[in-house]
Amino acid sequence: NLLYPDSTRISAGSLHAIGLIGNDPEFGETDGAAYFSVVPGFFGAHPFVNPDSVVIDSIVLSLPYNSLWGDSNAMEQFEVHEIDNASGFTDSVYRISTAPFTLVNGTLGSKVVDFKTLNDSVIYTNYTSTSSTVRDTVRTINQLRIHLDPAWGNKFIAYDTATEYKNDSSFRANFKGLAVMINQAGSPAPNALAYFSLTGTPAATLTFYSRLTKNGQVDTIAPAFTFTGRRSANLVNRTPANNYLTYLNNGMPGDDLVYLQSS
User: Fold this and answer.
1) Per-residue confidence (pLDDT) for residue 127, from 0 to 100
2) I need a surface site. Which of 42, 43, 72, 203 has the fewest CB within 10 A?
3) CA angle, residues 192, 197, 203, in degrees to nearest 5
4) Are 32 and 236 in contact (CB under 8 A)?
5) Would you give the end-to-end CA distance of the chain in angstroms?
6) CB atoms within 10 A of CB 52
7) What digits encode the pLDDT tens for the residues 189-223?
8) CA distances from 88 to 38, 103, 168 (A)
């Protein structure tokens, strides 16, 4: 038994594993985290329309859920972080064994998720135009929604059309993206990995539910930044323990068991 670095690469359109198997009785620990960028739907204009009067009520990150591996009774705490601009996160075909990218200090939002409910339908109210009287009750299925700190969104209001919102490359240079991972200490039953399709229908989306003043009237907007298939990584870390670790370290060339971990 030898420990081989995993050379698997996960493309932007592939399923991304997020979750934690805290202590498999044979293999030990496996945890998965997803890193990805999101961008506004257009450039050259401000997505918040009238930034001087905007107030963000809530920010929601929605991830399209696909399937799970492990115990469906798992309960794990998902955390969302901002990727640091100096992290070197610029590509989309990273090995799953790549070292974690550096993050901005602090957690943007978290949610303890019962894995049994990941495929449940979710109902929420969405504004379909810049009018508070035009609302739509949306029912979605297979979607994980995590609320983030509204104060964090002020940085996007402060961005300018001459720099950050000028074009795609300028925006990505100033905002690398988000990381979604598991907090082991806050997870009551970390026994599974959940798989998400970032390019699903709809794709992974960051929505800013906001109010602004337009022509002297309070109005509502919901700018959405989405994943477009550029800049993503799924990093899966394996920490051998229990019987697997014993066989790795026993010094015997003729082991009676062979341990194989698939991707």
Assistant:
1) 57
2) 42
3) 135
4) yes
5) 18
6) 8
7) 999 999 999 999 899 999 999 999 888 888 999 99
8) 16, 11, 17
Query: Which residue carries 């957690």 as its tokens?
Result: 107
Other CB atoms within 10 Å distance of the CB of residue 98: 17
The single residue listed with the structure tokens 């979604």 is 180
Residue 201 φ then ψ, to 5°: -120, 105
> Which residues partner with 20 through β-bridges?
31, 192
Does the structure show a pLDDT above 80 at 122?
Answer: no
Looking up tokens 């990584």 gives: 233
pTM of the full structure: 0.92
Give the model confidence (pLDDT) of 136-147 as tens digits.
677 778 999 999
3-state SS string over the chain?
Answer: CCCCCCCCECCCCCCEEEEEEEEECCCEEEEEEEEECCEECCCCCCCCCCHHHCEEEEEEEEEEEEEEEECCCCEEEEEEEEECCCCCCCCCCCECCCCCCCECCCCCEEEEEEHHHCCCEEEEEEECCCCCCCEEEEEEECEEEEEECHHHHHHHHHCCCCCCCCCHHHHHHHCCCEEEEEECCCCCECEEEEEECCCCCCCCEEEEEEEEEECCEEEEECCEEECCCCCEEEEEEEEECHHHHHHHHCCCCCCCCCCCCCC
Q: How far is Cα 163 from Cα 106, in angstroms, rounded to an integer?
A: 26
Which residues pair with residue 55 across a beta bridge?
Answer: 211
pLDDT category of residue 126 using cuts at 50, 70 and 90: low
Tens-digit pLDDT profile for residues 49-95: 999 999 999 999 999 999 999 999 999 999 999 999 999 999 888 99
Compute the distance between CA of residue 115 and CA of residue 191 in angstroms, rounded to an integer.
10
